[in-house]
Amino acid sequence: MKVYADHAATSPLRREALDAMMPYLTERYGNPSSIYSLASAARRAVESARADIAGALGASESEIYFTGSGTESDNLAIRGALEARAGTGRHVVTSAIEHHAVLHTLQALEKRGAAEVSYLPVDEYGLVAPDALRDAIRPDTALVTIMTANNEIGVIQPIDELGAIARERGVPFHTDAVQAAGHIPLDARAMNVDMLSVSAHKFGGPKGAGALYLRKGVRLAPLIYGGGHERGLRSGTENVAGIAGMAAALKQAVTHMAEETARVSEAAGIVKAGLGAIPFARLTGHPEKRLPGIVSFVFEAVEGESMVLALDFGGICASSGSACSSGSLEPSHVLLAVGLPHEIAHGSLRLSFGPENTPEQARYVVQAVTDAVASRREMSPLWRDNKPAY
Ligand SMILES: *Cc1c(COP(=O)(O)O)cnc(C)c1O
């Protein structure tokens, strides 16, 4: 059996997205900036996509900017906000469990003295405490950036509450909503955020298309200069097909969210219960405040990477820690932040489900993981000699 259980890394392209893209990859190839009718068709596609994405995120059209990825949206929000506020402060508050698109951006800024960053700790479930944010904001704080939902453990933050705290203090608030968009209901206004990043390929759109919600009146400096596209904030000829595909995918995800969530939750629920029955296995993240499709576990005395390889033999695509840190021997910064010791933080397995996964596939995954954990432990002298005590 083949099971794709790595939707948090990327998701299969939805049929509706491909259909929406095809005309702009074939006969409607005009440059949206040109003035003949071939170009107006492309321009209309971009503007109608903007309206659809705005609608799906509770924003107005003029608040949506297209980028080349979730990573670029995060970079634009963070570096753009700091540059626009240069002179008023360079202190940033973030969380210890952000995606590398945020963490590495901030670390690069810190290294060259362009930012001073406070990393808020999280509790054992991965939650940021609103009081910790309240205490961390200083008069020179120029930005707060905290993700909506985590890509490794699926925990969902109380963004509306955190956003309200930043707003009360007059500090711009950005949230990386790349894992959340299309998976849980989002309303940029109700969330009290000033900026919000999304990426098409995480909700059934194409890779290489992202968007940034930027609340009206919030200032941002561009990262990329050129022809002045996207109202001067992101130059470069628009990825028309990618943008059309992103909008179609998000519309589809939002319209069918209830039924897709039900399907995803069924598969994830079977896997969560099945893996929970393995001795010395622990679900990471919050038991309830989590994305419906992400099931993340640590297994004592088992390397995550070796689990992923074993599952691959069984036709299952899964991941260990985040895809970006795969290949490195560093344990996940997220699992360390939730308080897991080094040796256990290596043993993480993330299975992330989508609407096409069936209960039958979920049961197959449970069996494969159970077998793989048992056989790896049998080979482990550490496990044989002293079984762990938690
Ligand atoms: C995937 C992901 C990103 C990066 O998006 P890309 O479009 O792949 O660059 C950023 N943040 C989170 C939380 C993600 O899961």
Provide key terms for this protein.
390 residues; globular; 13 helices; alpha/beta; single chain; Aspartate Aminotransferase, domain 2; three-stranded antiparallel sheet; seven-stranded mixed sheet; Aspartate Aminotransferase, domain 1; binds pyridoxal-5'-phosphate
Notes on the structure:
The structure is a single chain. Strand 5, helix 6 and strand 6 form a beta-alpha-beta unit. The protein is α/β, with parallel strands linked by helices. Helix 2 packs parallel to helix 7 and helix 3 (70-84) packs parallel to helix 4 (100-111). It starts with a strand and ends in a 5-residue tail after the last helix. The chain folds into 2 domains: 15-255, 3-Layer(aba) Sandwich (Aspartate Aminotransferase, domain 2), CATH 3.40.640; 257-380, Aspartate Aminotransferase, domain 1 (Alpha-Beta Complex). The protein has 13 helices and 12 strands. It has a 7-stranded mixed sheet, sandwiched between helices. It has a 3-stranded antiparallel sheet with strand order 9-10-12. It binds pyridoxal-5'-phosphate (PLP). Pyridoxal-5'-phosphate (PLP) is lined by residues 69-71, 74, 99, 101, 147, 151, 176, 178-179, 199, 201-202, 210.
How large a portion of the residues is in β-strands, by DSSP E?
Answer: 5-15%
Sequence of secondary-structure elements = EHHEHEHEHEHEEEHHEEHEHHEHH
Rg on CA atoms, Å = 21 Å
Q: What is the terminal-to-terminal distance?
A: 34 Å
Small-molecule binders: pyridoxal-5'-phosphate
Form type: globular
Based on DSSP secondary structure assignment, what is the total number of beta strands? 12
Reported by name, the CATH topology of the largest domain is: Aspartate Aminotransferase, domain 2
Unreliable stretches covering 5 or more consecutive residues: none
> Could you name the CATH homologous superfamily of the largest domain?
Type I PLP-dependent aspartate aminotransferase-like (Major domain)
Please work out how many helical segments DSSP would assign.
13
Strand order of the largest sheet: 2-8-7-6-5-3-4
